[in-house]
Amino acid sequence: MQHLGRPWGRTRRLSAIERRGRRAPALFVVLACVLTLLAPVASGPSAASAAAVPSGPELVKNPSLEQGQTEPSCFVRAGWGTQATWEAVPGHTGSRAIALTLSGRTEGDSKLLQEESAACAPAVEPGKSYQLSLWYRSTAPVALTLFRRSGGAFGYWGEVRSYPAAAGWTRVVATSPVIPQGTDRLSFGLSLSQDGTLVTDDYSLRVLADAPADPSGELITNRFLAEDGDPGLPACFAVAGWGERTLSASLLNEAPAGSPAGTRSFRLSVSEHRSGDAKLLTSEDLSCAPSVQPERSYRIGVQYRSDVPVTLSLFRHTPQGWAYWQDAATLPASAAFTTGEAVTAPIPAGTDRLAWGLTLAGNGTLDTTGYSLKPVPEDPVVAPGDPSLMGSWSVSATELPVRAIHSTLLSDGRLLLIAGSGNDGNQFAAGTFRTVIWNPTTGAFKQVATPYDMFCAGHVTLPDGKVLLAGGTAAFPGATDGPNTFKGSPKSYYFDPKDDAFHRVSDMPDAHWYPSLTKLGNGDIWAAGGLNAKAEGTVATQMFNTKTRSWLPLNQVPQTYTYWGTYPHMFLLDDGTLFYSGAHTFGNGRPGTGSSLYNWRTASVLDVPGLREKDMRDQAGSVFIGPVQDQRVMIVGGGNTDGNRAAINLVDIVDLTSASPRYTAGPDLPGPGKLYVNLVNLPDRTVLASNGSKQNRSQSVRSAALYSPGANAWTAIAPDPVPRNYHSSAILLPDGRVAVLGSNPADNSFDLRISLYSPPYLFKGARPTITQAPATLTAGRSFAVQVTGDVVKAQLIAPLSATHQTDTNARLIDLPIAGTGTRRTAQLTANRNLVPPGPYMLTVSDARGVPSVARWVWGP
Predict the structure, then answer these.
(1) What pLDDT digit, counting tens, does each position of 177-214 carry?
(2) Of all helices (H) and strands (E), which one includes residue 33?
(3) What pLDDT, in 10s, does the model give residues 408-428?
(4) Which of 7, 133, 328, 703 could bridge 342 with an S-S bond, Cβ 3.0-4.6 Å?
(5) d(CA 856, CA 849)
(6) What pTM value is reported for the model?
(7) Which whole-number Å values give the CA distances from 44 to 47, 165, 237, in the listed order?
(8) What is residue 52's DSSP assignment?
């Protein structure tokens, strides 16, 4: 029988964390969760203990120590160093408990453990947590210590909690960590590591009923410091440090604006600093320290304010114990609470837990709260699977003849693909500007004469089916200019599918490079955003009159004198106002909350709160989810190309029917964070999210997913076979497939392959059909539709006109229907703000969600 105690002793277990390898004689360590006496009863807070209850049979053999002649069967004396004396004494509930006494101790500890045999050590199941308990009396502090069998051998796992001396019988209750793969048995007991007498009895180990996981993936317990632990400390946190300095520490009833109720912060103040540091660490106790997986990376966040720079320091736990790992980031001083964050390197093999905190390494004051640790999502592994569940991708044998940066579905089913100069300075200098029309049915391309550089113009489908182009590139950056200092053009044209030619209209009153164009309920076009002729952000709001085919003078358009950014995602709402989702192109979001309600008639702007990471929504995707009548908008992912920060996979959703709308967190996009996210409303009312990259035009993320608004959930699907990032677009075709085009990575190459995604509904058997429908619909009026199949829904879908993950006019309009057999009556809303005039794809769907091929109709 081997002794299970660790050869260097429990009380030295954290010295490596605090000293980070230093051997300074002036070592000063405050390990509050280890060395300070705790309340005598329950374990520290944990997600499992708070939400789960013990169930199933007792797993400890001979739990009351009554069986056995001279020694309790299935238990063994264990420890190392100074030897203890042992004796049987009257029990807590029976005739026997076991007492151990240390006298004249010089090193080591002693404890009573379950025997490490298959017949005695409690069997456990990976993925489960367990409630451990026992009763004790002690004249000295003790620690609940846990051992596990992995790979056929027992070894020390960790200390769960420490407990104070107790004159009377006192119950210890604690929760194990989630049992890792490869562990099949546990052994536990109370360790005595100083002179005194410890008596134990009535051991118990029972599995905990499964508790729901935090849907956000959050791993930190008591992250807002609301729960009390040791005196003056939040539960599951420890003050730590070393060196010669004067340290004061205190809990504050102060918190960042918008924090949950009960949030507190913790203040560390260092003065008379000569050496060392101080920090509030997430506790290294097993009941608190978050478990991590090798080879995964984790996103760390903390809200802080400090009058000096601070360092985000990481420690890791291995079979050899705790040790300093790395400094993940240096954070600047901030007078107000701000968020510091970092992404860890992949967790090294053998590491199972992390502890971390902000390090104050000189004189100063640091306040912290809002600790967070979440796994960085992995690329989802999706088996080829049944295409009726996942859909199917293919790559066309035909490649694009131009750099398709601007893609518009025409009302005859062809695609208008505009390159202009194609982000190629040589083509711009040569005056070579290109456009083609692609017929996805035949695969044929037709060249179209392009009168100026429409690269980075805005575009929208007009009520008569023509396509309005506005702005574009007047000049590329000079040799000494920044990368995005393009000069905007005031030119404007429309494309007519009837003659496949561009026709000039009046110039815009101000030039725009990267403007957004949004169609209003009367068919006129609102435009704003982008850079002007001086390569500066333009604050001009412009309006195109579709009846006169001309741009109004600026003095006839209400002006906010607000810079909306480049390609701002601006959606028309049911009351005729506009909603800025927060998605845009390049850099930080707008000041304030990052999202706004905008009454263009009065030029008033009202912030919409709740958008997370508003400065990380550069080239995010955003779209109405479900029918536009629901007035719900979803924003997905994003990054910050100016700062070249790693992209995010956060999803936020806002219900704009609310009296006080605010974003709330939705389910994270499966896989790693990414910008350049292409979102497409499908006729079965799901949303396809595809393509993107982790960084600015690099590290493409080959993942895709389908979002169900009803379930508020994503389903990961096989990715686009072609990695795509900047200047990619996705267009729904009338037959229900999605064409995905383009990619312009950092080396400025361009991928000319065309991917085609066939959604699951194309693999569910026969599709319903529309055999007859009117060519023109009237607002507020019903209309007859002849169909085949078990039709239960009908909808209109606006043809997409996308660039830079932006199509502010994308929408699906529900058409309530009635009728049986081959005849249905559908009703079009009377609200023209929900269905602005223009061409639409009409589809009907059966009870399986399978849509028909679209039929072109014209809206009111």
Answers:
(1) 888 888 999 999 999 999 999 999 999 999 987 655 55
(2) helix 32-35
(3) 999 999 999 999 999 999 999
(4) 328
(5) 20
(6) 0.64
(7) 10, 17, 10
(8) -
